[in-house]
Amino acid sequence: MSILIDDRARVRTLTLDRPDALNAFDEALYDATTEALRDAAEDPSVAVVLLTGNGRAFSAGTDLREMHARTSDPNFQPGKHGFLGLIDALTEFPKPLIVAVNGLGLGIGTTIIGFADLAFMSTTAKLKCPFTGLGVAPEAASSFLLPTLIGRQNAAWVLMSSEWIRAEQAKEMGLVFQVCEPDDLLATARTHADTLAAKPISSLMAVKRTMTAPLRAEIAAARQRENAAFAELMGGPANIEALVAFAEGREPDFTSLPAGS
Fold this sequence. Notes:
The chain has one domain: 2-enoyl-CoA Hydratase, Chain A, domain 1 (Alpha-Beta Complex). 48% of the residues lie in helices and 16% in strands. It is built from ten helices and ten strands. The strands form two sheets. A six-stranded mixed β-sheet has the order 1-2-3-5-7-10, with helices on both faces. Helix 5 (142-150) crosses helix 9 (201-233). The N and C termini lie far apart (39 Å).
């Protein structure tokens, strides 16, 4: 199993469990997380979902070796749900979703916070949206959700710079609700989850539904724009240079690419 599932007092904890790969999302983990969210949404005994990672990472984002295979291997087999299925499940998830960022979070390991109702972060964790560093475009409606959550200039830096965001900076931006010492992270997140889980599930779902309803059309439009940009850039000169550099263990050099790449 690439995801651990634990139920306690109407809180379902989902733990990404590929620690040797820094919980990077391969197709199997995308599928497992999607199905776990869908199951929790439909389970009448679950009031709140708490999502975290096992080991020193929350998630290192999409598995770059699989990303490279997707662009270079004609026999590559995508999963049942994949990245887009996970984003569908997050967008549609009707119950409170709490994220506990226990370690580094790259790509979807950061943009998933846009779908969280509460996010907690370890003081030793750090976040990065490496899209420009990979020569690609934003994902997961982050081009809409992050400006909404943290303001346009903060979002521009997070999405354009491919720089690490430390915990205190994330808290100052409003990207996370609370920063905790590593040993306190899960307990603090769990305390908040328990507080919510003691409330009527119907009321929790009504609050979330009324809060997210105005965002749904904008999320769909952002995803459409992002997917088009991603499809245009993936496999292009900048993306190939980034992936080759990753495979060779060096920093990419985008300065020698043709103009506009």
